[in-house]
Amino acid sequence: MTKKEFAIFASALKALYPNNDKLLPNDAARNLWYEMLRDIPFPVADAGLRKWAATEKWPPTIAEIRGFSLSAAAGDLPDWGSAWRETMDAIARYGYQGEQAAMDALPPMTREVVRRLGWRQLCISENQEADRANFRMVYESLADRKTKDRAISPELRARLDAVMQDGTQRIRAHGEPMTPLMMQAVQKMMEDGST
Predict the structure, then answer these.
(1) Which of 4, 45, 145, 193 is the most buried (most CB within 10 A)?
(2) DSSP assignment, residue 41?
(3) How much is the CA Rg of the chain, to the nearest whole Å?
(4) Are residues 68 and 97 in the same domain?
(5) Which of 27-31, 71-75, 93-97, 125-129 shows the lowest per-residue confidence on average (mean pLDDT)?
(6) Parent domain of 17
């Protein structure tokens, strides 16, 4: 999105929420919003804003605009129930010994959930209710992470990667090995988009 397009976007945002004096109150706020949204093409950001305005009564945050824009452009991820049904259909079609063919037939995110839970375990399990609950928990966790990852701009992703790399190098330079717990904390910060 160009600065000119962002000016149109900002005007629409202010017009949609005219009674909110705290929304883009000054040049610094407008510049920050532009910086955080500029990688989104104007038509996509505009669609995200319109989708938000049609469904929510409060002004959006940058994260909400990014999320709604990407949802408008790429579509929502399939829900866990559809993925569970695909998994059950694959088990019925390929069976216990057809793991590779089943995994090849499943969509990537469903495949990852099945990999984590174990194909053979799902095939031989006698507690489908527990399997379904575990499937849902893992699927929703992966979907949440994927949604957040999609919302992070490539520029911000590169900056977060650099921060992580720099932090790892600093820790190693001081002779303190990075423990698995420390690595998990740094990874969690990157996944959450906080530094």
Answers:
(1) 45
(2) -
(3) 22
(4) no
(5) 71-75
(6) 3-74
68/110 same-domain check:
no
Instruction: Supply 7's token pair.
Output: 């000016």
Specify the number of domains making up the chain. Answer: 3
Taking the model in full, what pTM does it have?
A: 0.58
Per-residue model confidence (pLDDT) at position 154: 78
Question: Tell me, what DSSP letter sits at residue 1?
Answer: -
Q: Are residues 7 and 45 in the same domain?
A: yes
47 is written with which tokens? 């669609």
Query: In whole angstroms, what is the distance from residue 57 CA to residue 87 CA?
Result: 38
CA dist 123 and 138 (Å) reads 17
Q: Which H/E stretch holds residue 17?
A: none
Q: What is the pLDDT at residue 162?
A: 79
Whether residue 188 sits in one domain with residue 174 = yes
- Please tell me whether residue 116 adopts helix, strand or coil conformation: helix
36 contacts 1 by C-beta, under 8 angstroms:
no
E strands, 65-174, are: none
